[in-house]
Amino acid sequence: MQIKQVDWSETFLVICLRVVADLEEATVQRVFLICIAAGLLSGPALASDLPVKAPIYKAPIAAPLYNWGGFYVGANFGGGWSNGSLNIPGNNLYGGLTEFVGGVQAGYNFQAGHFLFGVEGEFDGAGFGHPVFPAPTLAFVDQHWIGTVAGRVGLVDDRWLVFAKLGGGWVNSSATLNLPGAAWNGTSTNTGWLAGAGIEYGFKSHWTVKLEYDYLGLSNWSSPTVPSVALNRDLQMVKAGINYKFESGLPAVAEAPKHSHEPSDDEDLQKKSQNPIADLVSVPFQSNTNFNTGPFNRTQEVLNIQPVVPMHLNDDWNVISRTIIPLVSQPSPFFDSSTNGIGDITQSLFVSPVHPGPLIWGVGPVFTVPSANDPILGTGKFLFGPTAVLVVTPPHWVIGVLLNNQWSVGGNPLRPPVNAFLAQPFANYNMAHGWYLNTSPIITADWLAASGERWTVPVGGGIGRVFRVGDQPINASIQAYYNVIRPIGAPAWSLRTTVALLFPVN
């Protein structure tokens, strides 16, 4: 009888794999790791007439956790508001700041399985000077920059991170008083404690997106005048951000790009680009030009930057993040001039099934942060409400509607409340070579306005095309609309042009 030397570790692994084949996936993972450890420790052995090789059963192995560890840098933007008071004797017309905040962050994460510990620093500029009416006779408050340092703790579930943060911050502000016998101006940097929470998602191997809420409790600031005026403040911020990780979050095999430019792929991409909750990363730049706006018939321009990021919740559900960042040129209602800046930022989150039936749908929350850098560019209120989208895709068509309603739930108490409705029905007829015809009017209602001033209802449409510049897919369109129903002073005609960069999810 011939005695053969075999690799007993390999044989042991074969036996383990056959035993666990019918177990649940989570159990398979644990048993498989035990088998690997035992097999590696067993070493070579002598066997009588045992086969040197045996067929290996390909058991399912779960993908490793997303790696959150290491250094990262990024950028953030959003809105902030305070509920402070400027205690001028006999008058308190301040109400607090609402402002755009934006800047950079950097940090380091330590990951231990499903737990994360880290430290993060942020530096943001603030863009809002707030007059205390009747301005400028009473006062003016301005906020320049915000810096924070905080520790982070979180729970990791593959590409998802839910975190809390605790630390401190600094805010640099200036104030001007024009009181009888108490004229004064000064600048101060105040410290405070920071608490926050948020979610983060790794949508690429080196890239993550996040959404967080921060509360910064500041010390009081009193003027050296007689009588003294106390500026009491807190600061709340809602910010979105994007981070670049220096260490890859995915194994090399998962990072391999998939290149496919088959006609069927381009047709699928064309329909996905028209579906607001498709599994497709896109960055649209949408210009809305509204003619003959206001009492001086000026042109209003709103450039919306609208990044859309799908996030994989599990095998059955996705969460689609849709952000709208408006850059506005707003005609004045009182003077023949315009104010330019950033408007209020809106964030929608749609929970949508991965494998829908004929009706594709998504529901979730929508909120708007008071990020405008001038009162004329925003409501001064934090808005919140529900949103939903319904889509069907018969041959050649993408048809659906997007709905939401928002109510004011915070912000400057001196600004009027908000109760606003939006409906955007859309229909796209797709033709050859990426061309399509479409209509997507934005119908709005201000429920708190007078009955005859409540609705804006446009009609119109246009043409677009999905094409490639090199390997980069692009969706471009142009549409014109006429507002058949509109409030007094609202524009009659508008032109919408859109260029969207498309990034198919591998």
Automatic annotation (TrEMBL):
Q: Name the residues that span the membrane.
A: none
Pfam families from the UniProt entry:
OMP_b-brl (PF13505)
Q: Indicate yes or no for the key word Membrane.
A: yes
**Gene3D superfamilies listed in its UniProt record:** 2.40.160.20
Q: Which UniProt keywords apply?
A: Cell outer membrane, Membrane, Signal
Write out the annotated subcellular location.
Cell outer membrane
Q: Where does the source fall among the domains of life?
A: Bacteria
Principal localization reads: membrane
| Listed InterPro entries | Beta-barrel_OMP (IPR027385), OMP-like (IPR051692), OMP/PagP_B-barrel (IPR011250)
Outer membrane protein beta-barrel domain span: 65-246
Say which family it is in: Belongs to the Omp25/RopB family.
Name of this chain's protein = Porin family protein
Species, as recorded: Bradyrhizobium barranii
